Amino acid sequence: MKETQNQILIIFGASGDLTKRKLIPALYKLYNQKLLPDKFAVLGASRTKLSDDEFRNRVSEFLPDEKDTIEFKKMLFYQAVQNNEDRDFIPLKERLSVLSGELEIPENYIFYLSTPPSLYSLIPQYLHKNGLSRSDKNFRRLIVEKPFGTDLDSAKELNIKLLNFFDEDQIYRIDHYLGKETVQNMLVTRFSNGIFEPLWNHNYIQRVEITSAESLGVEGRGGYYDNSGAMRDMLQNHLMQLVGFVAMEPPVVIEANAIRNEIVKVFQSLRPFEENMIAKNVIRGQYTSSVIKGENVLSYREENGVDPFSRTETFVALKFFIDNWRWAGVPFYIRTGKKLPTRVTEIVIHFKRVPHHLFGSPDTSANNQLIIRIQPDEGILLKFGMKTPGAGFDVQTVNMDFHYSDLTNTTVPAAYERLLLDCMQGDATLYARGDAVIKAWEFVQPLINAWNTNPEIPIYGYPAGTWGPENTDSLIRKGNWRYPCKNLADDGLYCEL
Description:
The protein is α/β, with parallel strands linked by helices. The chain contains 13 helices and 17 strands. α5 (122-129) runs parallel beside α6 (152-165).
């Protein structure tokens, strides 16, 4: 474990939901595990006028009623800040100076932007003009929440603006998917086991499949989601980062730049979509009204805040290729959507079938599968053939699995716990780098452009509670999608939540 220097975390947007639901509870768990530095403070900053005690009471909603909570809340402070001009940040600078002096904390600052994206370039500018973005003696870091741009041009523009005020090694673009234990374990599974890495290439893998399904709909966020959609909300960021971890080459060392260099190489190798191939290899859908467990479910267009003629996708599936030595000819499949049968995120490695089928015909011989479950029921599952007891050589598929829940004496940290601690320690391994974000946008932007300019590209309806449009199955020619359930070892088209 690296040493964590004494520091102050400044959270902009401190009166918002993310702060009280995720950030403060994550910091409390780090405190409980004695992972915070000896001298540490959190300074909440927002437009709302609050005292320190009012702020502490507000964020207590998602903290347990424990004795330690009282001591933890003494680390929390608040400063009202307007975001209209650079002089609005003078009180913040003065408060930080006072806190550093009173608490004997060096002026090591992490600035967390838990704000609307419209402030992502303004706040760094105001910090810079007040001399808070850089220091010769102390570290200054900036955590930026998604979305990092709404398209390729805006992502490039935001990158340029941020680099005017902070250096690249100071910027931490947070993606909570990368904070999940099973995502990190993918590196260990691949690069510490002689039984996996030699097979992790086009010679032995038939296809790679990544699914991120949500059983919920837009949940009152129709106005926001209708300007975003599944491509921007999930695929461009979360799922492309998972692709990077699955497909990367072994890094020279387990160090931030070495790992992130390999992820960028993956994105550089993505085969661009030709315009005439988009409709064939990319399927978008939108959920329609349905009946789930006896209850009527509204269609997406009937949700509050959604345009009744909306063509925003709530589901997207695509087939693509990575043109490099390791993955030549191996198709990758991604799907993500709302109002699907269950909530699950997983990666499935489909290995090629044996070249000669001794025990039955090729049609009855199943592919071996390695399933890496991100959420829920986190773990790893290997599917392979075993002889059915009795006469003859009938083969059945069996499971060999590991579940993180079996580690009763080990605490599996939540995503924000791991990511916050990493930033405190200056470890950017699990944060997206600017060039990787731009490369991911370069890959998906032609798809968004085609949807916006070509009305002949269809958007398919799918009943809420199903696995998306029926023709999604046509993307995979050799085999079918895996239909996962809540429990890692279970398969099925429609699973109970």
